[in-house]
Amino acid sequence: MPKKEKLPKEKKPPKQAKHEKQQKKRKGRSVQDFIGVKTFTKYGLMTQKGELLFYLVSPTNISVLSYVNIEIKIRHLMMVLSSIPDIEITCTDSSECFDDNKAYLHERLEYEQNPKVRKLIKKDIEFLDNVQVEMATARQFLFTARIKASKDKQVFDTANRVEKIISEQGFEVRRMRKADIKRFLALYFEASMNGEQMPDIDGEQFYEVDEDEEDEA
Asked: Distances from the Cα of 149 to the Cαs of 44, 145, 146, 157, 203, in angstroms?
């Protein structure tokens, strides 16, 4: 009886194989991988492109300053940027913004015919207005330094040096701690207005291990 010959496997075109490989790799990525964040560090946040150190700089109301004083402030900022050329500046809301929610409710109000539902929508709009006033919608400014040093002593020295440079130019600044960074990330990604209360690992607050189980393990 003649032996059956094995048919050669059909080879996929290089472009198709590469595309499928990239799709499979992308499909298995988590949100944490997608935004490039690895973990919190002692001084900041570790990302795929180095460690980030965050500094919260109090804003200055330039509307009450004279033209000369505004020029001085600009010159001081230029000095900071020249001393730390790689520093990044971010301006965000200091609390959660409800503008999209309010816009949706106003649009909903235009088309709603039921008087009882209209009354409820108006109450929701009023509630959001009150919350927004209480939370203060002021802006906050973040100066971010990206460093690639791996030794703890080098990171510590850099963190202090950056804060000193910003402070010496007349800006009210403080380095953000872990809770501050978590709150900023929650606001930035519109996840929650209580970001500092979020657990480091999703779901860890629901996972409890008894001491007896640990001893048995």
From this structure: 13, 12, 10, 10, 32
